Description:
In chain A, 61% of the residues lie in helices and 13% in strands. By secondary structure, chain A is an alpha+beta fold.
Amino acid sequence: MSVASHSLSGALAGRASRTGTLFGRSPGRTEAMGKALTWLCGGALAFNLLLVIAILTLLAVNGLSYFWQRDLVELDLKDGRKVLGEIWEVEQAAKVKATATQGPEAAIDRIRMKIGNRDVSGLDFVWLDAKDVAARSRPAGVVMLERLEWGNFYGTMAELRRGGRVLASGPEAVWKAFGPLHEQKLRELAKIHDLEKGGIGDVNYEIERLRLAEKKLDLQKLPAAERSRRKAVLDAGLAERQAAYDKLASRLTALRERFSAETLVMRTADGQTKEMAVGTVLQALRPNAMGTLSKLRVYVGRVGELVSQDPRESNTEGGIFPAIFGTVMMVFLMSFAVAPLGVLAALYLREYARQGFLVRLVRIAVNNLAGVPSIVFGMFGLGFFVYLLGGSIDRLFFPESLPAPTFGTGGILWAALTLALLTVPVVIVAAEEGLAAVPRIVREGSLALGATKFETIRRVVVPAAAPGILTGMILAMARAAGEVAPLMIVGMVKLAPALPLDGKPPFLHLERKFMHLGFHIYDVGFQSPNVEATTPLVFATALLLIVVVTLMNLVAISLRNHLRRKYAGSAV
Amino acid sequence: MADTQTVTATAATAAATAAERDRAVRPQIDNPILRIEDLSLWYGEKKALNEISLEIPEKQITAFIGPSGCGKSTLLRCINRLNDLIDGVRIEGDIRFEDGSIFDPRLDINALRKRIGMVFQKSNPFPKSIYENVAYGCRIQGINKKRDLDEIVEKSLKSAALWDEVKDRLDESALGMSGGQQQRLCIARAIAVEPEVILLDEPCSALDPIATARIEELMQDLKTQYTQVIVTHNMQQASRVSDLTAFLYLGKLIEYGPTEKIFINPMKKQTEDYITGRFG
Ligand SMILES: Nc1ncnc2c1ncn2[C@@H]1O[C@H](COP(=O)(O)OP(=O)(O)O)[C@@H](O)[C@H]1O
Ligand SMILES: [Mg+2]
């Protein structure tokens, strides 16, 4: 389009200067430059797009392949050892050096293999030289176990035992018996979880509550009679809860005992055996005997597990649901805080303040606020929100739990408020632009009908500026969802014991610490004990972060478009 | 500030000599609803209106004509005090509406604007549905009952000759209407609050001839109920629609009288020149 307009303006200029040369004129120098500029601009855009696509592809390829169950390969090495596992990559290593020492043919392929069995061999991965491999095979009977602890296990099934008794032995017999038994164990595991998180958790919560109430009673100045009466009530409650707890605990012990009654004996490729409780196995697969369809089912199941389950093994395994939840909830809280803050500030600056030097100064300050490094906001959040505000709240409302802080330590509320401060300039700028775009004549139309200035702003100006304000919110949310540094000091943690939203009153626990996808990426990728194994998980998490941010933005964008359509009629 | 205005206004009235007053030709008006008395207005240092006095009769159409920039809109916007919003405006003189000064400090300016409605040069529907546009003034006045609003909206849209065109899409955005429809919607919106006076500032300047004709027709229909003051720089329009015409030039009232008289037999040379198209 811009090419067309260039040549058109060129033609018109030509006609203005030399009448009668509209056709058959050779293209001038400016026209050629115009074309070159068009190509340059187009090229820059294409380059940017290419980079974005490259990033997304990198994340997608690395992240999504993580969940695909590869075949298990058994390698017979020349020195007689056997290795069983998944081949992760084959690398042409040290080619140049090899030719120098061993002649022209000897490019050395190196194989990176995931061998699992961390409890037996100590390492998840090995590097092997391809020239050391004598034979490779894909035995159908080998089994891969996903376990609660120690990562995957690769090997063959040897025996199934209950107490000292052998239930089944030999790979096929054990595989057959394992299936139904495992299902039963998983049900038992779910029951244990329910008891731990539900029953016992509830009783613990109650006990803690009563204990705090008792402490609070001590802090209050009450007549002795009244105090001892109340104390007796609390004590009775405590005793009751304690009894309930003991009962539940003994039930749990019984369940645990039954749960670990059966054990599975596995044999590794090089003949070692390992006994483990059947219940600690999450999933048993025979990848080499699986068709594409069943592999696909496993794939979908694993993706589902990732987005819905709690992490295990210090975040290197299991799901990342708490991190997703924490990210989304923190951004939501941030939005609730930043929207009124930004819009009210913009309203004052644009509608009420006398436009002059001072307002210009404030505007410049606001714009520059957006450029302050985010960690500075984090420090401000720590100093102001956490220590000052949170500390005061604790002294006023939660003296019974001191010295353990309630709000006086990092939490999701403080994190959200810190990010709200960080993103408020974006909202102010966008909202001001939106307000400025509402024509004066529309405001006068409202005033001429007898509306006050406030009514005009509330009923006409703000609704008309709503799409612009939402644009600001979208930018703010995108920025907030990707911000990690300031959160590290105001409440984001590697592993949060509970979600900030749950079934226990008051349901919304704003003081709780939370997990975050951005931090999760850093933690899993660079702080975990098993970085090699978790690298694909990092990619998958990064991809998920992008998906979450995109989804949140899409919601906001569709809301904005809805408003635009509603207000703008056929114009947009 | 308004206090000193009234004081200076009376002082000015007393001081004005008969000779000065006769500078503009003015007719005798029997039933004035609005009396503009020696009104002057400054935008900062610039004097945009110069001692204008004229009376506007009830339930008639009065037209302000004159070349662009002569102060027609400024004068019109004084009547509902819309100029108050502009920084640096200073007003002397008075406008009397039903025997009270509209510059009286005790006057509720929003109540005044409810009684003196306005239609602007460019149609300015709110970014809301057609229904909500018409209901806006009523909602401001605290009328929120659906049944009452339905009735008012229908009546106003019928009065503005718009009902048949929009009755099936009242919930659609007003910004999706054509220019002529939008302007009639603005008229409907103005009459929904049942004002006594409607000010129209070049209501047809952005419309095609057919839409213009419809608005002019509408103005005739509304004449039975409302006093209308229209600003136009289209002389044909003034001669077609108005009963009285005031000719302004450089912030001064040059001549004011029955429309036929102004157009057929003007008293002043300047008026004649303008009407015959020699300038402006
Ligand atoms: N808001 C304003 N600030 C300063 N001067 C203004 C303003 N509005 C109008 N004027 C000036 O006042 C004079 C009269 O303007 P206006 O009443 O709009 O003229 P008309 O409507 O007859 O074309 C013009 O010279 C114009 O430049
Ligand atoms: Mg004008």
